[in-house]
Amino acid sequence: MKVLPRSRALVYAILIVVAVAVLLPFAFMLSTSFKPPREIYEVPFRFIPRQPTLANYKSALLEVNLARGTLNTVAIAVPSTLGGLLTASFAGFAFAKLRFPGREALFAMLIATMMVPGVLLLIPQFSAFAEIGWVDTFWPLIVPGAMGTAMATFMMRQFFKGVPDEIIDAAALDGATPFYLFTRIVFPLARPALITLAVFGFKGAWNDYFGPLVYLSSPDKMNIQQMIAATQNAYGGDPGILMAGSALAMVPLLVMFLFAQRYFIEGIATTGLK
Amino acid sequence: MQARRFEREAFWAYAFIAPPVLGAIAFAFLPMAASLFLSFTRYDVLTPPQWIGLDNYRRLFNDDFFVGRTAVNTVFYLMGVPLGIAAALTVAVLLNQVGALRGLFRTVYFIPSVCSIVAVALVWKWIYRADLGLLNMTLTSMGVRDPPAWLNEPELVKPSLIFMGVWTSIGFNVVVYLAALQTVPRHLIEAAELDGANAWQRFWHVVFPVVSPTTFFLVVTGTIATLQNFDQVYVMTRGGPTYASATFMLYIYVTGFQYFQMGYASAMAWLLALGVLLVTRSHFALAKRWVHE
Amino acid sequence: MADVVALFEQSNPGLRVTYTQVPGTGYDYLNKLRLMIVAGNAPDVFYVPDGAFGELVRTGALLDLDERIAASGVVDLDAMWPSAVDRYRWDGRRLHQGHLYALPKDMGPTAMFYDADRFRERGVPLPDPVVPMTWSEARAMWAALSDRAGPVRRYGLTGYPFDVAVWAAGGEVLTSDRRSWAMQNPVAEGAVQWCADLALSDGVAPLPSRVEGGGGRELFEARLAATHIDGRWMVPRFRKLGFDWDVAPIPMADRDRPPVVWSGSVGFAVAASTPYPDEAIALVAWLAGPEGQAPLTRTGLQLPNQRALAKTDLFLQPGQRPVHADVFVRAAKNSRPSAITETPNSFWFDVLSIFLDEVWRGRRTAASLFPELAPRIDAALRENNPEL
What we know:
heterotrimer, A: mainly alpha, MetI-like fold, 2 domains, C: alpha+beta, six-stranded mixed sheet, 18 helices, 11 strands, about 40% helix
């Protein structure tokens, strides 16, 4: 399709304006995080600090223990994501390609759980986890995800629907079990979808604030999000330190995103979110 | 096709689906049943629940003005759904026309989707601040006197939060749309061009119908997320000022966890769940009119 | 706090204390605490803000300290501020009387912080450290400190707490039986309207929409407001500010009535479920006694609960701001706890705050709003506090 040069310039102009609008808050965050306290309240706002300082980052690092937070996050994210990948893809495959009584009803039941408001479940769940002594452990944050969430199952089912029926039929004719078919033939095909799920799972675990807030209380079990919240203590947060803390918490995910963005994007496309 | 059958296919299938189904029972259906029971009780969590019949539901529909106020707010927030989708579709269509820098723009737009709500909220609170916020400092330096307090005026807080929501979600929606736009058959567009259709006509008659399943997906998920919106309001305003930004979900949380009226909060949560179900059903019913499969 | 706990361990070799800090703001702490209590894994000893004391004690989550404290013989309640101690009492029906369920960690009286440099720039005399100004004197002072013409608006003060205004004018927030709201009368209506008019007609205070979460504190820190009413706990933070500031008594309606200000406090409570009640009480008694109060006071955050300590240099901290730290000592004598500490459930106060906002914004006058508001607040009060 041919586009006239003038309208092409307009297209770029609009895209650049949107990009600036998207990046501006981050620029503001970074700028504030490098400012000494007296410059923060200065009017008018300057994006380049006159006397840039690392003091805010030093203070934030006292509150935000990046190493410990990352370790805790990984300890939650890895088992819950890997477990979820496995369970959700088994189930997604069954819902997409196997035939069994109650398939549609069970699938609908699973999907229905996505519509349940989270608060509805919080108190009974919390009481139950407390009953079995799981409060202040990682288990309440790992097990529900590792059992395969409805969303993950749904995504995997969408993916496996795109696998040609011929492959399945051929395996059935050969007398293979569904387990063999799945583990040897179908599962390896799902790599892009799995990576997407993994990336989203890790992102979810890294950014989770309310789960750890409810279930964890020991300081040595906190994740990054709770640590940034800690910089905003009861006596009001220092904006420079808050912004430095936010910036620190974003960095690992941004790095992961820049390296894995192909999977974010391909994944969204191949899983055919439609 | 029909002939294909694995041996003991159902057995394998049940084994495959067991973990998520059992998970759904343990982590969703049993708690739901518990909360349904609680909605007919007075329950402060520390002492055993007391059966009070329909009292909670009566209170919900009769004499609680916060229910009305927060429900209206929640409906207001729904305006953000079409707004966010329209913005994303516009950007995606424009982005689809450029070659060289497409990947770069897409990466930039996606960045907010990667960030946590806690970090994003901290930054936006400082942007929206009345006196020292970035937005108002900019407006002041442009000569605007007394720019408004974005998060502290009952009339402005919801639009401000909606704008922030669009900012947060645009990247994800653009990526989804870009994927969908790849499926628009080139020959259809070329045929339309030959027929003398202008850009808008080509978009409206060719592109929009092809991406309509994607639009539908975004409308449904966006609506459900908005009806259950809690995180954003909780970290940004805690519902203030004067409950003007409080969502129904936030009111449920406050009732249950701040005032320990878990029975009443459960009744409210059930009302919300029913509302979500109804809205989603009507989306699917309406979809037949405009979604092209 | 962790250091103070370490000191306790040194002087009590047999005992080990694990100190846990909950991240986030006050809300998060209370939510977390409630969930831990529900889960049956409450800490043995925890902070209870005075405003949340009623709600927690009503559910039976706190241990009755009366007998054990009497038995231990180490706690001298008479050495503490009576208003600090009494706010942690509960008789099964009413608060502020009956058995003791927590010991005060501190006393948090409020005062008027002022930007002394700004006063000098404007040629405004500094307020007296002993005698409170009257409202009319203060209003003139705030007007002289405000600047409404420049590109950046500057205010005389950040806002006057409405409950203090009601008390100062001779009114009450709740009736003495605490079964009804007591502000539907000309005295309280006038006091609330006076607070609102500081912003609405005088322009010496910011409109509520201009005040962010910090309650105007940021405006004071940014030197956009010359005075700011707040508690002692702000002192360590303000010591980092780059200008000269001090404290003065909060202005009162007139000189006919004795001065009255608000004070906050946090208590140390012991969980009813603790397996170690004696050890927990030993810790609480130590922290609330002279040994624990000394290091806690040194932080500058608090006025000690021990009256005698408040008169020493440990609290007054000469050489550091504020110069007139004794203002807090006098304020502590004149202070009373907030009305939210008077009822176990304080939802009625939320309802009140939400509707008062219409007065702060000038959309309603107090006199026209209050008659309509009274039944609503009374309903919230009674429905959630059936024991009253």
